[in-house]
Write a structure and sequence with these properties.
The chain is an alpha/beta fold. It has one domain: Ribokinase (UDP-N-acetylmuramoyl-L-alanine:D-glutamate ligase, 3-Layer(aba) Sandwich). About 45% of the residues lie in helices and about 15% in strands. It contains 11 helices and 10 strands. The chain has a 10-stranded mixed β-sheet with strand order 1-10-9-8-7-6-5-2-3-4, with helices on both faces. Strand 6, helix 5 and strand 7 form a beta-alpha-beta unit. Helix 9 packs across helix 11. The chain starts with a strand and ends with a helix. The relative contact order is 0.16. Bound molecules: ligand NPW, adenosine-5'-diphosphate and magnesium ion. Its cofactor is Mg(2+). This is ADP-dependent (S)-NAD(P)H-hydrate dehydratase. Its EC number is 4.2.1.136.
Length: about 280
């Protein structure tokens, strides 16, 4: 494997942009998160809350109808658009100009959802984060990967990565195949794991934060919200990916002495994002 660039606090401080005292919510970016299906609306509740808590000025979610009251009740700060379908997404429609879009948490793999993703990728060329079942849909329809805008951020866990690039026989081969995929499609790959690597063509970054407390449902959905938030706030895609992964891991390092490994949950990532940001100011 090619040597990787460590992402530590010094590397982060070169990329981190402190908040301007005169900013307002209109400048802080408007993110759109698309996902959810019956039984998996929680993925969107988590990712949209994380998106707000990472500093985005406005957050809108696009979800199936069954999630409307759940989202509005759980996260009153988030705006909600709904699909015509009750239980899954069938047609991604919105009437505003988001600065960045995150798509996939809990979205499922219904055929109509697959078609909606295809339609969306054909017509929309905005900054994009792709996660979870949206990645699985791309794996099943490999030709659609060419529709992704350059510098789209993909956030696969190991199984999703395998579905995307095929099996590997060694760690070296895993990196070779991921780098080749990144170069071929001009995408950034957040290779989630312990640790997480961020791959941008030939360049490999290795994150230094995070621990096994993150091995719990929904932490990846939260990461998608965080990276989409930074993208909407005008961070370059590679910086949004690196800073998002670093802060996400840092929340678990900060919380560990209170929660231990076992009782840390995805909501604890969200409630510690503030402390993670504050640690950058010291
Ligand atoms: N509250 C909600 O609404 C939630 C909703 N969610 C939503 O659910 C959808 C399905 O997502 P998902 O990731 O659970 O399913 P899937 O893609 O089949 O992968 C699972 C398999 O992958 C593997 N694997 C995973 N991690 C690995 C690792 N680190 N290292 C190694 N292997 C690893 C592992 O395979 P195994 O080892 O068992 O062979 C495991 O069985 C998705 O849309 C998501 O957003 C969830 O976020 C939960 C909370
Ligand atoms: N043992 C571990 N050490 C460090 N980070 C971990 C560990 N296990 C999981 N994570 C992190 O937790 C997140 C899990 O993402 P994912 O599998 O997509 O979860 P979900 O789909 O349930 O939201 C990733 O950011 C991954 O790097
Ligand atoms: Mg996931």
């Amino acid at each position: 494997m090619k040597s990787s660039i460590p992402i530590d606090k010094a590397a982060i401080l070169k990329r981190y942009k402190p908040i301007d005292a005169h900013t307002h919510k209109g400048i802080q970016g408007h993110a759109l998160l698309v996902g959810g299906s019956y039984g998996k609306i929680g993925a969107m509740t988590l990712s949209s809350k994380a998106c707000l808590k990472t500093g985005c000025g406005l957050v809108t979610v696009f979800i199936p109808r069954c999630g409307y009251e759940i989202l509005q009740t759980a996260n009153p700060e988030v705006m909600v658009l709904t699909d015509v379908q009750e239980k899954y997404i069938s047609n991604i429609e919105f009437n505003f100009m988001p600065n960045a879009i995150g798509i996939g948490p809990g979205i499922g793999q219904e055929l109509e959802t697959q078609n909606a993703l295809h339609e969306f990728l054909t017509n929309d060329k905005r900054l994009l984060v792709i996660d979870a079942d949206a990645l699985n849909i791309l794996s099943q329809n490999a030709a659609w990967i060419s529709l992704l805008p350059d510098k789209t951020i993909l956030t696969p866990h190991p199984k999703e990565l395998e579905r995307l690039i095929g099996k590997w026989n060694s760690n070296t081969e895993k990196f070779e195949k991921t780098v080749a995929f990144s170069k071929l499609h001009h995408v950034i790959i957040v290779m989630k794991g312990a640790p997480t690597f961020i791959i941008d063509g030939e360049t490999i970054y290795e994150n230094s934060t995070g621990n096994a407390a993150l091995a719990t449902a929904g932490t990846g959905d939260v990461l998608t919200g965080m990276i989409t938030s930074l993208l909407a706030q005008s961070y370059e895609p590679i910086d949004a990916a690196i800073l998002g992964v670093y802060l996400h891991g840092l929340t678990a390092d900060i919380a560990l002495h209170k929660t231990g490994y076992q009782s840390f949950i995805a909501s604890d990532v969200i409630s510690n994002i503030g402390k993670a940001f504050l640690s950058l100011e010291k």
